[in-house]
Each structure stands twice: as C-alpha cells, then as structure tokens.
UniProtKB/TrEMBL annotation:
GO MF annotation terms: endonuclease activity
Domain Homing endonuclease LAGLIDADG intervals: 102-198
SUPFAM superfamilies linked: Homing endonucleases (SSF55608)
One Pfam family recorded for the sequence: LAGLIDADG_1
Gene: HEG
Keyword annotations of the record: Endonuclease, Hydrolase, Mitochondrion, Nuclease
GO cellular component terms attached to this protein's record: mitochondrion
Record keyword Nuclease present: yes
Name under which the protein is recorded: Homing endonuclease
Gene3D superfamilies registered for this protein in UniProt: Homing endonucleases
C-alpha cells in the first residue's frame, strides 16, 4: 500500500494507473466532490471522504496518492482537501472499465454475502448461496462492468439507488480471480478473503470441477 507521495512517484506506471482508477471508483461510490461559489466570482473545489475508524488506513492511502489534504479522527475518520488545481488535474480524463476501478466501487459500496436456506427435500441440510452486491446512485457507472461480469442490475425501491447483484457460480469465479489481481484496500479485503475461502470449501465439498484458483474459462470477456 502506498502511504506517501514518494512511494507513489517511485512506483511503476501500471501501479500508479491502478491506484488512480481505484480512487475514481471509490470516489464515485463513497465521497463528496463539490464545487462552491465564493465571493469575487471564485470557486472552491473540495473532496471529502468519511470512513469508520476501523478503516482509517484507507484515508491515509488516499492522502498519500494525492499528496495533499488532512485526516481528522473523531467518532469517524475524515479526509478533506480543498485544492482546485489539484482536483482539476489529478484524475485521468477517461475513466477505465478495468478491475482497479471496480475494486474502488466495491471498497465503497460492495458487500460479499453468504446465504443459507433450508432445503425442503433434506430438512437437515441447508442450501448455500453466494453473491456480490454493489450499490450505486447512477446505474450507468455499473454498466461497463455488468457487460463483462454478468449479474443483474435493479433499482432499489426504497431509495434512488441501483443494485448490481452477481450470484451465478461461473460469474462469481471470475469475480474471485479479478480481486486476486486488483486489490481491495479497505476492510472489505478481509470480508473478501473469508467469502472466497468459504466459496472454495463449498465447491470442493460439492465435487465441482472449478474453483477460484483452478478452472476453465467460461466464455465471457474478462477484465
């Protein structure tokens, strides 16, 4: 993990590109990027990100990427920067649809779920299902990844948000491979590793011939 601007600058172009794309995805899901008009017709650009105290390491990660800003720790952690020149020039003009940006979206509003349901044909057994759910205010943000990973996007009836759910086994295997290539930076990484281990054990006990580490291609375009 990068913690200083020096580490970012010394990293490879590929690593820096992944870091910026991760940051774009994270900002799209979990931050406030605002423009405020002040006196004398000037504008103030600001970026703020709030996280639970258990996730404050990601705030220092963002500070290291941008090289500016402050982290405050109260009941929650908050990163804040108000630098118009920095915020106008720091991000690439074109957002990528690769796995790094998706990792940022998952770090912001993703949930790895394991569900248990009773099996009416075998009362002593339970059916196990796995899913990844990502929430987003704008459905268009999810569409490039949906086209590559499958699943289903639906609008949440209780709010103006969209939910993308992936639950088919073949799609979930690709998800696991993806996040082993593009790292999660919040505590979601711990959730992912536990979820991944449970998925592997379930596949093994079910006698399935594919797993997150060993398996064939399932035909869809990969990220």
């Amino acid at each position: 993990m990068f913690t200083t601007t020096t580490q970012v600058l010394r990293s490879s172009e590929t690593a820096r590109g992944k870091s910026w794309q991760w940051l774009i995805g994270f900002i799209e899901s979990k931050s406030c990027l605002s423009v405020a008009r002040k006196s004398h017709k000037t504008e103030e650009f600001s970026l703020s990100v709030s996280r639970p105290l258990k996730d404050i390491q990601v705030l220092y990660y963002i500070k290291g990427l941008l090289g500016y800003g402050h982290v405050k720790l109260l009941t929650i952690g908050k990163y804040y920067v108000a630098n118009k020149k920095l915020l106008m020039n720091i991000f690439p003009f074109k957002c990528s649809s690769d796995g790094a940006r998706l990792a940022g979206l998952v770090d912001g509003e993703g949930v790895f779920l394991v569900s248990f349901k009773h099996n009416p044909k075998a009362p002593k057994k339970k059916n196990v299902s796995f899913s990844l759910i990502i929430s987003q205010v704008k459905g268009v943000v999810l569409e490039p990844f949906f086209d590559k990973l499958g699943g289903r996007i639906r609008k949440n009836d209780k709010g103006d948000t969209f939910k993308w759910e992936i639950r088919e086994k073949e799609d979930l295997i690709r998800v696991v491979r993806l996040f082993k290539k593009y790292s999660l930076w919040t505590k979601k990484r711990v959730d992912f590793l536990k979820w991944c281990k449970t998925l592997e054990l379930t596949n093994y006990k079910s006698g399935l011939r594919y797993s997150p580490n060993h398996g064939e291609s399932f035909g869809r375009e990969t990220l």
